[in-house]
Fold:
Amino acid sequence: MTSTPTLAIGVLRSPRTPRPGIVVLASVLVLGAFALAAVFAPFLAPYDPHAVDFSAIYASPTLAHPLGTDGLGRDTLSRMIYGARTALIAPLIVVFASTVLGILLGLVAGWRGGWLDAALGRLFDLVFAFPALLLAIMAVALFGKGLVAPVIAMIIAYVPYVARLTRSLVAAERSRPYVSAYRVQGFGGAWIALRRVLPNVTPVVGAQSTLNFGYVLAELAALSFLGLGVQPPTADWGAMINESQAGLLGGHFLPAIVPAVAVVIVVVAVNIIGEALSDRIGGGMPA
Amino acid sequence: MAPGSAAAPAAVGGSRTSAAVRRVAGKLGGLLLTLFLASLLVFFSRFLVPGDPVRFLLRGREPSAEAVAAVTAQYGLDLPPWQQYLNWVGGILHGDFGRSLQYRQDVTIVIAERLPVTLLLVVMAGSIIAVVGLSLGTVAALNRGRALDRLTLIALTTLGAIPSFVGSIVLIAVFAVQLGWFPSFGSGDGFLDTVYHLVLPSIALALVFIVLIGKVTRSAMVEQLRREHVEVATSRGLARALVVRRHVLRNALGPIITVSGILVAGLFVASSIVEAAFGLSGIGSLLVQSVDRLDFPVVQAIVLLVVTVFVVVNAVVDLLEPWIDPRSTAGDSAR
Structure:
């Protein structure tokens, strides 16, 4: 079975940037700070993210507005803090759901083999042909703007990556002696697969899945940037950049740059944590 | 996995040529099957939306009775679904993607008008990715373990964390608005002017993909550098540059080209973001606009085109692999 996309991810992730522990720690702190900001947004944000103030349009950073205001005089810091909610929750849902579904399908394919494996492989090949963002755009075309349809589309798009990895790990586990030992003792195939094989592959797959978080976050933000995801005036990083494009051309950079930098910081932090997790668990692609 | 592979083992003791023919036939079969399934998905996705298909196509518009009748007749919505599908696919095979609801023109014409900008954008971004990615990967591989290697990897990882929309707005802010070196909007007139207009967009598009080529180049070259044939070549006193070019890079091409295949579809999809940011009228911005204006026939056509490009490019890469790297065929039969 040739699986080019999975191969690429494996190659891509194999040479890891050497990272001392302090960088990982800093990433955890940064991500934690954004998560806290998302949870406690109403207490942390100095202003209502939707509060329009025509006396302070494109205000420069001051003590009153540490990151300035946008074209409607809304406080950029407050909007960034509230924007962390959709930015973090939606990718979390996608990564969690695609991991659970991918592990189950990969387990079935790798354990049962045969026609079921072949059929699932063909299905994964089909889904691979649709890049995640394209599938999300198509979902919006069908079901309308917002985050629900794109999130479901993203889950579908990411399942094959998880399933392929799980399948290859399970197929390798199946021929290990402990499995035959359980069989000899009379344990059923389903029991061995679920109670003994599944716990062995889950940590590796889980660690690899965290690396998808950054991609999903960036893709969903891109969708909102295109005006197809979260709709204005809701404070969302992608939607904020979308709304600030006119101001950008007029030389008002902060309302667009602040959410953009937030996206980059979170993506970098998540990727560093994800790679550290994969390193520690010793996963990666099986030979 | 290719459906043709089931039939392949039947022929015993075939020569190298017949093995190659079977391989190509198998890949082609797989390609056609994937395209067929993709067309089913793109077409029948419309039926996932509950309700009347005429209402779906005319969402956001206020159809008169005649308009409903016209759309029903034009898209054959009163026919059974499989008949509608056959008509649609039959049209596509003749280059007819139906009519755009928004432009009241043939979808093919609407797309053809915008294709050149997107193609040029993708080619320019692809060139940037190839040059920068290969250079950074080579520098890192030749200095592996040293500070320069680490620095390059950090640079690559950082570039990889800059999504196209972030790259676009930063480039617009710095090079278009602040410095005024490049235009921030539109695709210009004439070839040279268009290239000039596409400089910033193609950089924005390239950024996130450079890491892919860079890291693959590095790991593939590092693997080759450890090989005996490189040591032998070096010990024979060949110039370093020649060894790197002929023995290392040449043998590292396989994985690099495989990844490039995957990259192509990514570029086409991400170009919608960059085109939107820079106000370019290519098929990416057409896709976004068509979703926005509920022009589903255009959406279907563009999605199918992008998927086709992706599947075909990957099949070509797959077929070229043994030619670029003869070892991979041996690997295939051993598997």
About this structure: Residues 254 and 320 of chain B are 9 Å apart (CA to CA). Chain B is about 75% helix and 0% strand. Chain B touches chain A through 71 residues (CB under 8 Å). Chain B has a mean pLDDT of 82.
